Amino acid sequence: MAKNALLEIKRSLEAHVGSKICLxxxxxxRKTIERTGVLEEIYPSVFIVKLDQEQHAFKRxxxxxxxxxxxxxxxxxxxxxxxxxxxxxQH
Length: 91
Hints:
alpha+beta; six-stranded antiparallel sheet; Veg protein; SH3 type barrels; Protein_Veg
């Protein structure tokens, strides 16, 4: 069951490569990290996000699809007009 869910998350993100996204990640000890960038690449186990340079010290971050499945990361795809197009959260 979980393997199918991971594959479904990967396939749904593949459609948004090159799109602007917002990430909300669990930073531990009740911290939430929010980052914005572009969904750059999709790999079998992880996806890569190129971060906005003016806001972050890192150039790229990677997360696994399991991070979305376990609700450690919330991914929101943002349209060119700034409106939310889709949010990936597992319930």
